Every structure is written in C-alpha cells, then in structure tokens.
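User: Sequence recovery, please. Input:
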C-alpha cells in the first residue's frame, strides 16, 4: 500500500512511526513532514493546506490512503475534495470539521443535545458582549468563534481582561473573520483531560486517556502553547469519568451530527474539564491531539491501519484496541522564545544518545535535516554521517519515556531529554506532576513511602 500522511508536527511523526509497523505499507509519504518523518518516509514538499496540490499528488502517485493530521486542511474540506476523485482518506468532512472550526456550532450542538458544558451566551455585537461581561463579572472566559491557532480563548481573571479580549477579537479583528462572533462563558475550575475516539459515523472506538500541559512554564504558569507535554493514561480519568465522557459528551455529539445529516467519520477529541468529578466539554477537536498522540500511540498494541480502514468503511462495530499497560510520558523541547518569536536553524545534538536509553523514543516536530546546507526535502534517505538535524519550528522535539508507572516513565523521558541540546532550548521539568501527586496521595493513604520524582 501507498500511504500519505498530511502534516508536519510531532503528531504526524508518531502516526508515521505507528503506520510503519504495518507490513502492508510499502511506501509512506509525508507532506510536508519534518526531519523525523524524513527518516522513516519520503517527505513531499507540499504544504498541508494546499489541498489541490495534495490531491494531484495522490492521483499521480496512485496513493491508496491519505491520513490527515491537522485541523486546517480538514476544515478547508480536504476529505470532500479527495472523495470527489474517489481517493480514500481518513478524516472528517468539512461539515463535520465544524465541531472544531466553529465554537458557536459546538456550543449550539451541546445545547440541543444536552451535552454538559460551561454556561454561555453567543454575541455578534461587541457592546452587547461587554455588557454581558459586566453583568457577570470575572473570572469569565471569552472565545472567538473560529480557528485562531490556539490563541482565540481568553480565560480572564479580571473583568478588564475580558473586555480587552472582546476588543481584540471583535473590534481589532486580530483573528479576522474567526472573530465575527464571540462566546462569553462561565469559567470552570478543575483538572483537564483529553478523551479521543475514532468514529465510523455510528460506532466509536476509544483510545487510551491522556492529559496535556498547555502552559509554557512549570506549575502551569505563563502563556498557553500548543502543548508542552502529555502523558497517558491520565489517572484523573477514572472509569466513571471515561464512561461519562463517552456517554454524555461523545456519543450525543455524533448522534446530534447525524440528526443534522452529518456523518462524523474520523478521530474526535473531547477536551474536558473535570469539575467535581463530572466531565464538562471544553472543546472538540476533529483530529488526534498534539502532543497527546505522541504519548498515546507508543502504548497502542493494535494495528493502527486496520483501525482507520475499518472507520472509513463504517465497520467499527465490536472492534476494540489492545494497550500496553505501561505509562507513557511525552516532554516537548521547544525553541528559545516559544510560544513568542523564536529562531530557527539551530543544530540539534544528542538525539542518537537519547535513543540509546531503553524505552525511549524521539518524535520530531519543528525540525529539518540539512545536508551540505541544503534542506533534505523530497528524499527518503538520511545519512547520519552527512546530514544534520536543525530546528525549524517552535515545538522542536517530543521526547518519550515508557515505564511501569508514571514516575518511571517520567524518569525515562527526562534522562533522554538530558542527552539532547540545542541553542535556546527549553522544556518543562514537571510533566506528569498531577499524576505523580495522585500516586503519592494513594501511597499516603496506604501509608507507603515513595521517593520524590
Ligand atoms: P478551548 O480551545 O475551548 O479548549 O480552550 C483552550 C483552553 O482554555 C482550555 O484547554 C482550558 O484550559 C481553557 N478554557 C476554555 N474554556 C474554559 C472554561 N469555560 N473555563 C476554564 N477554562 C477554560
Ligand atoms: N493538545 C491540544 C490539541 O491537540 O489541540
């Protein structure tokens, strides 16, 4: 089989790594890919949002299946466009992708399907939105309706912050038409978790639970990022939380979409806030999470290709997945300055050394490989002697550790991080701290001593 993966992040490297384990796969392409995918597939220099370029490539190369990583091509309608030409593709249609592309769409669906979520109001007028904020007071949350590269949500501790956010979104139009409408909603407190499933339009197969770390600094401080690390499973997701999320959030959403005539086929990610033990929907993503995928897929024992083929064919009934019981931790190593402005082109040292440690993996994100100072785009070979890996993005590497429990997985991941160096690099030192905290309180309850992480 010939397979194309669309995207260039750590998620796409992890998907490529998993798909490579399927013997049926003869040729694997990644568009545009990164320095990691270049080592296990053939990078194709076509951007993820160049839908026609991607479709032409698949027609010319007779690609059997395309797996779409990021939300942008999905919300632009890559699936619909490919299907018009009879090309096989994994990822929801443009209509289904509204679950991520429009927060207003998702809130309205939540209301009609009784999906638990923060109380909210929708506004098309800045003054009315501000009056509502003033009537409610802080803390309060302001959200731009459309895609805003993860920057369209403002959790305002002060009323003035919320009023400024409305100006940014609706008056200054920082996110363009994504700010035509805003949602102003209740601020929820609790612990967040990610539950991802694969849907065939009717049946779902859940993946293992996970938790992301969105803030840039230790202790969940500083600005939001695309995600600085993740781990799986997430102990906060008890069986009850897991089952409640599936039955009161995910299934009603898929059912609600079907009522609108929309067939939801693809990955569906529910970001939930666990307030008082009850999951409430924060957001849907219409794709696998990043960096959650990098922490989940090393634990997946089953054949990923089989899963997505069954989903495309509507045949997931009674299908389930096998999981490695161990914990998995992903630490994101970022470029100096990220999530603000950052430099590219710094040489990365020590990846090979990190990989010598057992039970570790390194998934690349913002990297490239240069040989004789030329990017290695479009070739499948990586010659360790001749090529060097350089930084090419904000989130640079995902360092993975597997272990019998979360603490051992953390130790593995950080030992591997210790071997890697590049100018300006930074990473959080506390990935998994909530899960370790739970482990400690469990141990305290049993009166067992355990050492500090
Ligand atoms: P979203 O893109 O809607 O998931 O929002 C991004 C992040 O903002 C979430 O992961 C939460 O950390 C935070 N957030 C969103 N909505 C709320 C809310 N209603 N209450 C508290 N925090 C929120
Ligand atoms: N980790 C959050 C996301 O994938 O959007």
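Assistant: Recovered sequence (453 residues):
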């Amino acid at each position: 089989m010939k397979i194309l993966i669309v995207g260039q992040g750590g998620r796409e490297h992890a998907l490529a790594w998993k798909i490579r384990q399927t013997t049926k796969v003869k040729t694997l392409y990644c568009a545009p890919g990164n320095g990691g995918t270049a080592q296990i597939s053939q990078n194709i220099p076509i951007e993820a949002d160049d839908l026609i370029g991607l479709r032409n490539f698949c027609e010319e190369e007779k690609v059997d299946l395309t797996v779409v990583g990021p939300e942008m091509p999905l919300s632009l309608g890559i699936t619909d466009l490919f299907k018009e030409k009879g090309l096989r593709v994994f990822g929801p249609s443009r209509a289904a992708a509204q679950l991520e592309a429009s927060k207003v769409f998702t809130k309205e669906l939540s209301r009609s399907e009784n999906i638990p979520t923060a109380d909210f109001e929708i506004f098309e007028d800045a003054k009315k939105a501000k009056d509502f904020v003033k009537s409610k007071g802080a803390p309060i949350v302001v959200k731009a309706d459309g895609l805003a590269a993860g920057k369209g949500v403002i959790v305002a501790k002060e009323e003035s912050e919320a009023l400024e956010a409305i100006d940014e979104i609706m008056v200054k139009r920082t996110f363009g038409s994504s700010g035509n409408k805003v949602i102003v909603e209740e601020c929820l407190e609790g612990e967040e978790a990610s539950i991802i499933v694969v849907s065939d339009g009717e049946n779902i197969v859940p993946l293992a639970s996970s938790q992301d770390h969105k803030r840039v600094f230790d202790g969940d401080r500083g600005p939001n990022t695309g995600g600085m690390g993740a781990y799986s499973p997430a102990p906060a997701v008890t069986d009850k939380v897991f089952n409640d999320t599936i039955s009161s959030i995910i299934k009603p959403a898929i059912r609600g979409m079907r009522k609108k005539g929309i067939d939801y086929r693809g990955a569906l990610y529910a970001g939930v806030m666990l307030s008082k033990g009850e999951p409430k929907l924060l957001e849907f993503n219409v794709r696998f999470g990043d960096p959650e995928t990098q922490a989940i897929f090393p634990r997946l024992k089953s054949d990923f290709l089989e899963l997505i083929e069954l989903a495309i064919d509507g045949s997931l009934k009674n299908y389930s997945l096998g999981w490695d019981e161990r914990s998995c931790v992903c630490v994101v190593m970022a470029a100096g300055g990220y999530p603000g402005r950052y430099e590219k082109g710094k040489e990365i040292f020590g990846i090979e050394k990190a990989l010598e440690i057992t039970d570790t993996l390194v998934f690349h994100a913002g990297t490239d490989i240069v040989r004789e100072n030329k990017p290695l785009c479009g070739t499948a070979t990586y010659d360790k002697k001749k090529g060097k890996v350089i930084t090419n993005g904000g989130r640079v590497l995902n360092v993975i550790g597997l272990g019998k429990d979360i603490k051992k997985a953390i130790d593995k991941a950080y030992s591997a991080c210790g071997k890697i160096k590049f100018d300006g690099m930074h990473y959080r030192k506390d990935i998994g701290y909530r899960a370790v905290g739970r482990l400690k309180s469990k141990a305290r309850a049993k009166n067992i001593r355990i050492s500090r992480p």
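The CA atoms of residues 218 and 428 lie 6 Å apart.
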